[in-house]
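Lecture 7 notes: from sequence to structure.
We start with the chain below.
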Amino acid sequence: MNAPRTPLVEMRDISLAFGGIHAVERASIDLYDGEVMALVGHNGAGKSTLIKILSGAYQRDSGTIFVRGEEATIANPRDAKKYGIETIYQTLALADNVDTAANLFLGRELRTRWGTLDDIAMEAQARTVMSRLNPHFQRFKDPVKALSGGQRQSVAIARAILFNAQILVMDEPTAALGPQEAAQVGELVEQLKARGIGIFLISHDIHDVFDLANRICAMKNGRVVGTARVADVTKDEVLGMIILGKRPPGAIAGPGAIERAANATRSE
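Predicted structure tokens for the same chain:
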């Protein structure tokens, strides 16, 4: 029997209340390297709050976070970055009036030995990382406000992986994109998976979820309804988890769904 894999991230029994209202209640979820875990649920279900706890934006009331099997202390976004956790918000948080290299190094600029900005070195590194991520990208000198939605996503992702992110949170990455640009984002996600990067995908688009994710975690009223491999559930069953809080036979409560499903298959 194969030894169980260690999750890249495990959030165990996480709870957070705002003024007596439980935004997240004893929620557990895990993520393995090279996979996409989609978080789905209505607005207010708790998925964004859970991820903001991982990214250091919120402080949990209780529960434990593990990164590669070791307990992690995440009190702020800087701590999260130390563990290789980067978040790409729906707004992308790009500086529209400057070019790609300036965005990639925003707040972490390279300088020459004389203390001036090393524009040449920053552009060279920008070209290197973008050539791996999006080989067709050529608009390095243009301000990012002139780029398409898919190209802007490329810049935001490149900024995260340039500084060795291993855990990526993507918030509605295809929102407001056309089919061609959404397909481009899908290609970027596949490249990230191939590099062993684990991705938490927050999305309201059930079609995106089934196209991009390996597993799905559905939340309702701050609780995890169930976690399942995409191959084990239908879209209707996922909608049933989101709307009714009903866990189908192919879903498992809590983390470890992929490992327990694999062990069950081996034991048959």
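Points to note: The mean pLDDT is 86. The beta strands are 9-18, 21-31, 36-40, 62-67, 70-71, 85-88, 167-171, 198-202, 215-220, 223-229.
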